[in-house]
């Protein structure tokens, strides 16, 4: 499933452009800009499924690094610092990965 079938392609581009500079990524602002925050929980789960590249049911740190590429092929990789901050914000149970419920909670914050 393509991210553009869930979210508006122009919103995705604007959000990626806003965080094009390394170490500028802010998940709260990003989710708001792409319109994910306003989406239904079903749509949020669909986005999670796209980002869970290995279909493990979790977004692991390695997948998180490429999260912007999940929104658009030309998205940049997150820096290690951004990846760790994103994981820390989302990983409420401390297992080192993000489950679908943790992702949904993070999006709605």
Structure, described:
The chain is built from seven helices and two strands, in the order αααβαααβα. The model has no long low-confidence stretch (mean pLDDT 96). It is mostly helical and 109 residues long. A two-stranded antiparallel ribbon has the order 1-2. The radius of gyration is 12 Å and the shape is globular. The N and C termini lie far apart (25 Å). It is 53% helix and 6% strand. Helix 1 (9-18) runs antiparallel to helix 2 and helix 3 crosses helix 7. The longest helix has 11 residues, at 41-51.
Output the keywords.
109 residues; mainly alpha; two-stranded antiparallel ribbon
Short note summarizing the structure:
With 109 residues, the chain is mostly helical. The chain has helices at residues 9-18, 27-33, 41-51, 61-65, 67-71, 80-90, 100-108; strands at residues 58-60, 97-99.
Shape: globular
Strand content: 5-15%
Order of helices and strands: HHHEHHHEH
C-alpha termini separation: 25 Å
Alpha-beta content class: mainly alpha
Instruction: Flag low-confidence runs.
Output: none
Oligomer: single chain
Total strands: the figure is 2
- Main β-sheet, in a few words? 2 strands, antiparallel
Q: Output the strand order for the largest sheet.
A: 1-2
Q: What is the average per-residue confidence, as pLDDT, rounded to a whole number?
A: 96
The DSSP helix count reads 7
Task: Give the helix proportion (percent range).
Answer: 40-55%
What's the Cα radius of gyration? 12 Å
């Amino acid at each position: 499933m393509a991210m553009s079938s869930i979210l508006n392609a122009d919103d995705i581009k604007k959000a990626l452009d806003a965080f094009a500079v390394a170490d500028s990524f802010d998940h709260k602002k990003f989710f708001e800009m792409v319109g994910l925050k306003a989406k239904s929980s079903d749509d949020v789960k669909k986005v999670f499924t796209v980002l869970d590249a290995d279909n493990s049911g979790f977004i692991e740190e390695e997948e998180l690094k490429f999260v912007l590429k999940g929104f658009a092929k030309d998205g940049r990789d997150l820096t290690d610092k951004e990846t760790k901050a994103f994981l820390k914000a989302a990983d409420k149970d401390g297992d080192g990965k993000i489950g679908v419920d943790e992702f949904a909670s993070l999006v709605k914050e």
